[in-house]
Amino acid sequence: xxxxxxxxTGATSGIGQVAAERLAGMGARLVLVARSEVRGRAVLARLRxxxxxxxxxxxxxxxxxxxxxxxxATEIAAAERRIxxxxxxxxxxxxxxxxxxxxxxxxFATNHMxxxxxxxxxxxxxxxxxxxxxxxxxxxxxKGARLDFDDLQSAHGYRGFKVYRRSKLCNILYTxxxxxxxxxxxxxxxxxxxGFVATSFAEQSGGLFSHIVxxxxxxxxxxxxxxxxxxxxxxxxxxxxxxxxYFYKCRPITPSKEALDDAAAxxxxxxxTRLGSLGISDE
Length: 283
Ligand SMILES: NC(=O)c1ccc[n+]([C@@H]2O[C@H](COP(=O)([O-])OP(=O)(O)OC[C@H]3O[C@@H](n4cnc5c(N)ncnc54)[C@H](OP(=O)(O)O)[C@@H]3O)[C@@H](O)[C@H]2O)c1
What we know:
Layout: E1 5-9, H1 14-25, E2 29-34, H2 37-50, E3 57-60, H3 66-79, E4 85-88, H4 106-121, H5 123-128, E5 132-137, H6 160-181, E6 187-193, H7 207-216, H8 223-226, H9 228-235, E7 246-248, E8 251-253, H10 262-275
Parallel strand pairs: 1-2, 1-4, 2-3, 4-5, 5-6, 6-7
Antiparallel strand pairs: 7-8
Helix pairs in contact: 1-2, 1-9, 3-4, 4-6, 6-10
The structure holds NADP nicotinamide-adenine-dinucleotide phosphate (NAP).
C-alpha cells in the first residue's frame, strides 16, 4: 500500500477508524472526509503517529447534504492528482424521519446518496488512477428489505430499522450496477458486511432501538475484527480483478434475491442520478 492514496468516509469512529489506521500502518496516505473538526483532528493525529512523515489530510462535509459532498469532492479532486481507493463507509440509523434540505429522507441521503455522489464526483481521478478500487460498506441487514420505488423517501410508515435495511440494500444494488457500468475501466467496485460490530453505531439514533443495540453489543465482535474485510478489499491482491461482489469475512457471499435484481439496480441508478442531479444515466 506504500504510496497509495485512499479517500475514506466515516473514519472518525468504529470500523472506518480502525481500517484507516491499519491502512496508514501499511504505508497508504489517507484522505478523510468527516463532519466533525474535533473528531477529525483526533483521528488525523493518530494516523500521523502511525505513519510519521506521511501527509494524511482531511476535508469536512456533512454527508447527508449533496452540496457539501460535491464541495468536498471538488476540493479533493483539486488536491489529489490520483486516488487509488475510495472507501464509502459513513452510515447512520435514525429512529425518526427527517428530510434534508435536498428533499431526501436523511437515512437514504447519508447511507446511499453520499456513496453515489462522492463516487461520481471522484470518478475521473479513480479511472485515471486505474487499477483502482471502490469499497462500499453494506450490511446483512439488507436481508428481508425491499425497495419501494413509489416511496424511496419513506414518507409512509417510517420505521428506523426498516429504512436503514433498505439503505443497505441500496448499497449492494448500487455496487453491482456501478461494477457493471465501470467494467473495463480498471476500477473494481465491491461491498461487504462487517458483521455485528461493537461501535457507536445507532447509539445516537434515539428511540427504543438505541437501547436494544446497546444491550445487544455484548455479543458483538470488536471494531478490529469488523474492519478486516475493508482492509482486505482495499489492499489484497486476491481481489485485484474481482468486481460487483458482496463480501463477508473476506469471502464473496450471495446477498438476498432483492439485491441480485438487475432491473432494480438499474432503476435505482437512474433515480439516484436524477435525485443527485448527476446527469450520468448514459454512463
Ligand atoms: N456496527 C455494526 O454492527 C454494523 C453492521 C453492519 C454494517 N455497518 C455499517 O458500517 C458503517 C460504519 O459504521 P460503524 O459501525 O463503524 O459506526 P460508527 O462508529 O457510528 O461510525 C459511523 C461513521 O459515519 C460517520 N457519519 C455518520 N453520519 C455522517 C454524516 N452525515 N456526515 C459525515 N459522516 C457521517 C460518523 O461520523 P461522526 O464521528 O461525526 O459521527 C462515523 O465516522 C456504516 O455504514 C454501517 O451501516 C455497521
